[in-house]
Structures are given as C-alpha cells and as structure tokens.
Amino acid sequence: MCWTAKSFIRGLSFSVKYCSKDNHLQTICLYSKLKPKKCHILDWSGSTRNSTVPPGSSLPWRFFSCKQEGTEIPCKRKKIASITTPELLHKDLLKSEQKNWNEISGRYKAMAERIKKKIEELHNKYTLSSGSPRIKVGESVYFEENGCIFLSKADDVDEGKVHILLSAEDLGFYDAFIQRIRISPDQRYMATSLKSENSEEATCVVMKLGDFPVVEKVIPNVFSFEWVTNDVLYYTSQKNLKCQNVFMTTFTKQKHTELVYTEQDARFFVDIYCTKDRRFLTINSNSKTTSEVWLVDCRHPFKLPVLVQARTKGVIYHIEHRNDELYILTTYGEPAEYKLMKAPVGSSGMENWQLVYALEEKSKLIDLEMFSDHCILFLQNAGHLYLNVISFVSHSVHSIQLPVWACAFELESHPEHTTSTCYFQLTSPVHPPKRFAYSFKENNLIEQAVQEVPIITNCHTIRLLAKSKDETLVPITVFHNMNSKELHRKPLLVHVYGAYGIDLNMSFKEEKLLLIEEGWILAYCHVRGGGELGHSWHKDGCQHNKHKGLHDLKACIMLLHELGFSQPKYTALAAASAGGVLAGALCNSDPELIRAMVLQAPFVDVLNTMMKTHLPLTIEEQEEWGNPLVDEKCMKYIKSYCPYHNIKPQYYPSVFITAYENDQRIPLTGVLRYVQKLRKAALDHAGRTKKKGNWIPNIILDIQANGSHCDSSWEDSLNEVARQLAFLKKELEDV
Fold first, then answer.
1. How many Å apart are CA 725 and CA 710, to the nearest integer?
2. What pLDDT shows up at residue 450?
3. pTM over 0.90, yes/no
4. Which terminus of the chain has fewer Cβ atoms in its 10 Å neighbourhood, N or C?
5. How many C-beta atoms surround the C-beta of residue 168 within 10 A?
6. Strand ranges inside 133-231, DSSP E
7. Where would I find the Peptidase S9A N-terminal domain in this sequence (predicted)?
8. Residue 576: φ, ψ to 5°
9. What share of the chain is helix, strand, coil (3-state, %, to 5)?
10. For position 531, what pLDDT does the model report?
11. CB proximity list for 647: less than 8 A, separation 6 or greater
C-alpha cells in the first residue's frame, strides 16, 4: 500500500510521458484494446501505492513532467489597456516561440512519423496484451475499459457476460479519464473520480448500483475519497493544487454533508485512505518533511477524528492497523530512515512506539503491503530489488532477491487483507511488466505466465558507482544492446531527476526499448536529492545541498565516458520537471560533456519562482528549495545554481524543451524567458568566436496547447515523444 500522500506519478517517461510533480494517487496503467490512450494510473483499492516514492514521504509538486500555473490571462478587447507589461511580454514571447516552432518543425516531421509507427508497434506488442486490471470483491469483478466501468461475476468475465456501470462520455465527460474507483463495502454504491487532461481538479461521481445504476451525487474538485461504511463517504477537496479540507457525506435517508477536518498550515497537503482491514480511515496531513495522522473509527463514522501523534518537525509517519495495534511506518528515531514500528490503538503516542523491523544500512524501503498475518516489504539495495516477508505468526523474516533485470515494481490491488497471495509486476525501462506472485502458504515466489509477453534477451543491465566531488559513491544503472560493438561510438541518453526524495522513473517505456534495439545506450543517474538510497540521500541533496546533486551528475557522465560508454559528441541529457534544475545547471557549468539536452516541462527558474508566494506551491516547496524571501544566504545559494540566472555566452549543447500552456505547476513565463536568454547567449558566443564552421546549437521550444502538467492524451504524448526522439537522432546520429 502506499503510505504517502498518494498520487499520480508513474507516467510514461519524458516520452509517453512522465506524470509528475506530485499529485497523490498511484495505480495501474490502463490501455484500451479498442482505442489506445495514454496510460492513466487507475486506483481501485483502498490502498494506493507508488513504487517510486519513499513510503511516508510527501510527494513533490515538481516531479517528472511538470508545470505550474497557466500564466496567460485572457482579456476582452475593450480591456486591453489594463493588461500589465509582464502579461504583454508573456504573450509576445509565446507568439514568438510558436512562430519559431512552426518554421522549424518541418525538419523533424518525416523522422517523427517513422518513430511514431515504431513506438505504436512496440506498444501493441508489449502493452496492449496486458489488458485492464481487475478487482474482485466477493463474487463480483470490476474493471475499466476505454472510459467505462464494467461489472461481471467472477465466473463470467472471460465469457464476456458483463454489465456497464458507468460511461464517462455518457455522463458528459468527453475528454476525461477515470482516475480512482471506490466500491462501498456492501457494493450498493460506487464512487469514481473523472479528470480532464487539461485540468488538475477531478470530479467525483457517486452512483447507486443495481439493475439500473443511477447517479446519486456529483462532487466537484475532489482529490481523494473513501467509503467508511456502506453509506458514508469521506473526501478531500482540492483548490489551487492544495488539499486542506476533509468532508463527510452520507447516503442515508437524511442525506447531509459536513466539514470534518481543516489543515491550517499552507505547507501541508491532506489525503485520506483506509487501513487494509478497513478498521480505520486515516486523515494524513503531510508537508515535505513532517506528517500528522488522525483516525476515524469506521464502526463509528460520526465520531470526531482522533490524533495518533502530534506533528513533530522532521518526523514522517503513516499508519496501518492489525489486531488492535497500529503499525507505523516512520522516520522517527536513529537513523532517520524508514522503519516499521507499532503501538496500541489506545496509546498511540510516540513514547509508546516499539520497533518491529529496521532496514539494513543503505537499504531503501520502496513499498509495504499489510495482510492479516504477514507484512511484505519491497526493498532496494545497491540497485537490486528485494522482497522481505514478515510473519506475525512465526515472528520470522523471509528475504528473496528479485530478478537482477528488475528496476521497478507495481503492486496489484489486494482488497481482501486475508488473502494468501500477493501479486505484483516487475519491470525496467526496457523490460515490459512481468507478473509475479508470492504465496504465504508455500513461502515462495511464483512467476506468472498469464500473458504471453515476449522476453527481452538482447539487453544488458549494468550497475555502476561514480565517485562524486566529496568522494560519495553515486549509483548509475546502464542499459545497452548486447550485440552492440564499439560502444564509445554509440549514442548515449543520460537521465536525471534528483529532487523531493523521488526515485527516477524506471518503469517500462516503449521508446526506451526502441532506442536499445537501435543501438543506443541508456544511463540513469541516481543522484542526491532523489530517494534511491533512502531519506538521508534526499536530505543530502536539497536546500543548501543542491550543488551535491550537480556534482553527482557530472561525476556520473564522466565515469560513463571513461568506461567507454559513448563520448561527449554522442551524449544527450534528458530530464523533466524538477529534474530540469540539475540538467540546466550542468548545461551551464559543464556544457562540453553533452551534445544535446531534452527537457519536459522543466523547472529552470528556481529563484524567481520561489520569490513569488502568490503561486500555489511556493510556500510548501520551501522545505525543498529554501526560502529566499527571508534568508539572504538562501537567495545567493539558489542563484548560484539556478539554470536561468547562470546562463552566459559560451558553448551550449542543442536543447529541445516541451512545455504546456495549461501547466499549473511550472510557470510557462519562466520557460519562455529561459529559452530566449539561452538562445541569445549561444548566438553571442558564436558571434564572438567567429571560427570557420562554428557550430550554433538548436534551441527549440515546443509549446503544447493541450495537456497539462501531468496528463496528455495518448495521441498527444506519442507525438511529443516522436518529436523529442527525432530531435535527438538528428543531433547525435548525424554528427
């Protein structure tokens, strides 16, 4: 289950496409067999999870594909005189970049079309065959397909005997996808959230099930929701990217809605979920570094929430329940890494927390799932994934190393906490998801062969350690075609993120496999600021430690070149959202290490953004970047690495940036100004050197009218990826 302020994170990479900068939810990628859509993470169960987010952490708002507020302000012609100079500048820059893109996009069109066709072939071969996830509740099976929710009896699913419960289009949500589903315990009601690809807010539709399902209630601007009883629903409301209120609504004869909880601190985001045994609803209030949990007794849903432990600065914790005891995943105690503790329900204060399980040194807890007699921990150590099974009956721990090729996992939904088997999928950027099961009865791991997914056998996975400036060893994961010769002459695509304690997205992407098949090398640099080596790895790369992440990235690229993996003129750097900070910083400090850079919705103007408290995320992100408004040292430090503020006339690699007009997370104005300044600096340098054949980099901004920070349609995402890869191929393969 996910212990975090759950959310959308897994996406389809900088390609089909990194979903991002936090938003709390995690789920399973769905692809319609009727019409391919972008993978939207559908959350079925009461427990949400994220394989890339440290359990108990507060998810970041500038992650992978991100963006921040749509800054273009529409106005009527008669009010044109009231538009401020910055708004006019924004419009002028936007029009200028759109014109520039229209003039140069033709050079990539033919190659992009060929790439699209290849990606679609891989998608059909590896992804569509997996089908939609199914959730079994008693004798009923629920599943989503092409914007509809279906119900069938367990024995009738494969025979096609299904009933449609909901159609997004029939409800008037023509451009929406199904985000989250909750079935009431007695299966009389179903709550579903529908979200547009151009909006951050979702709408919750509650339906009364039966022979003829009917809409019972529509609740706008909802983030998370849970059934506490058969007819009592709790939900959180979202406004301006913030969730700070929890409401309760009833579906009894006397229907009513009331406010249950309000968070007063703007740094905190509120989310709710039920414990696995459905004994408690937990109200989780999280900042980037601190959390607090309140419990609602599901047997007495109208009683006031009870506090587990008052928030303590720097302590993150989340709650599960078993046999009248709370199981607490927390950073409390030394070392300040995640550990499993427990306390009686009636005495839940920190002074009563007892250690159940502590991680080995340098191990990272990725996820945890609680069952009636067991607890499964998914761990990472030295880049390898492990499964640790704690038995509450025998008081033993069984450890299993997962296949060496595995880089990421996805827990499947387990609505019954008494189940005897835990199902999950393993994957890597170049390996399609493969299903596994752990049997508590047999005490072993079983590889499932339910779908015939071709096995990738020609890709070699290597794990390296680069020595950073301060001697810290930084992990790198490398993939290359086993049949490739002269690796020093092959194109290399380096990936980086390094913020919010979030791991690099290592799930399967069709375009990554395409690059491997064409002889490219892929490298993932797990630099400080991310979460790959635990909570301390993040702390060692945030606020006044941001330069460490930059040093790590430089060391990783230099080691790759030293070991014969490509060379600077064949090397490109890829990043998205907050990953744009380190990528942009390296572009300023060591541009000679790379030939090209691809950024998706990048955060490149840290200082100006963090100076604007009217933006919805600035205050809560001060724990990641610092507060330059009150701390002059912080201001100077941010300025020392901020990509925008360190642009100067010098050699620069070619840069391709994808941004979104509807981005509510990364200000589009900052991206526009960054591109203009970078292009001018590159041209100034070329003009000053005046060498014969002097190379002038391509600085390209592709602004998308559709899509938002986290979501785009399958078609739009596919087009974006194809253009990005076409750019990279022209820059690296035509050298």
1. 20
2. 52
3. no
4. C
5. 21
6. 134-137, 140-145, 148-153, 163-167, 176-183, 189-196, 202-208, 214-227
7. 94-444
8. -145, 155
9. 25, 35, 45
10. 92
11. 588, 674, 677, 678, 681
